[in-house]
Design brief:
The chain is mainly alpha-helical and about 450 residues long. About 55% of the residues lie in helices and about 0% in strands. It starts with a helix and ends with a helix.
Length: about 450
Amino acid sequence: MSAIEMMDPKMDAGMVCNRANTTPITWDMALEKGELVLEGISAGLEPGEVVVMVDQTLACFVTWLEGHSLAQTVLTNLYLHQVDKVQCVVVKAVCVVALKLVELVKDIIGKAGVYEEEDFQPLTYGFRLCQDVTEQRCIAGLREAEEVLGREVRRTKAREGVERSEKEEQEHQEFTALQCRVKFLRLFYCGLSALYRGDTSEGVRVVGGCSEILAAISVGIGNQRVLEGGRVKGFEPLANQRLLPPTFPRYTEIVTREEAVRYLEQLVTRLNTVTTVTTIPSFHTMLDFFQSFSATSPCALSRSVLQLLYTPLHSPPTRQPAVSPPAGPPLPPGFPELLRDSCKSFMAPPCLLLAPRTSPGIPPSPLHTLQVRLCLDTFFSQCCRPFGLLLQATGHNRARQRDKISQLLEEFSTVQEEADRLDNMLNTLSLSGDGASG
């Protein structure tokens, strides 16, 4: 562990939890005290309380993305401990999508493999993340919740010529705010799912809708529902204390709801940026894009999405040129073809250019024989690993990239030796060809 990582606040050991004088509230205790209302809005749960619960869940989600433990962030929401018992359509849809988002983010970051311990903690501590709920069923539940809230918004909407009390106006604002948040959760989950599947066009369209909704979200609604000390009903910071290792737990400070919204706005902007990677044709431009994006110190999620969207990194280095389907777009080139084209445009070696036309009686160019072509194919296939690792190194955090690049130098030294041998062979063939033609 380097000194920079040790200075990170997330690495500090805190004893705040051990100094706590209150007994942690369990799921059963919260249910008895009325902090958990399983029937939800139909049983008297105010829409403003649900708004605050959603905002606090998003704040915990953002804190988890910043490298803190899942048990001390998202899973402090007691509603998530037994989602099956929640009967309210709105509350249950929010709880299910929160767990599905955790599962999806964990899969994306785990598949990309460009995170370190200080970036992200995938441990779920044995909690079920609604794996039995399919993506379509989760989205259907959110749509149903939006319809229920839409009816409540229309019911509480101001009518011409009818005066309304301040309480009725507040109720309308809270239902509108809650509907806006449920729609954001649906679009954000759909957009991330599309990007994970590699459907960039759908992901860009849906994630773009998230930006518009986040701009309209006001976190001031429901502030009066927050309990003394800033605690939110249904949340217990020490609920999972016994699941943590028997060492001094790292102090976890949940970001504020305002900071969470700003973070999500920046995250959506970064996701829109990384989707442009599919339109970059050359490897040199691609490398510049990866490096410039890394210079902004993005989060582990956006770095991982970038790695997954660049499909040449995941194509086999010895892939044969495939025939494009007759009724579809052309297949993207593989990584060896990209490296070959980059080398060709950068230095234009004769062996990569078209063979010159020969006159009768003049032997063909020795640089365009089958043997040379096979040697070049082998060389560019060997280049895939070091250049792929170079792109992956830009996906790690800035502090770790120094270690990754030092390891890459050994990989590139091997490629350099192979390039020297290939260059000497081609020079010998070129000289022999010039002598034969002379």
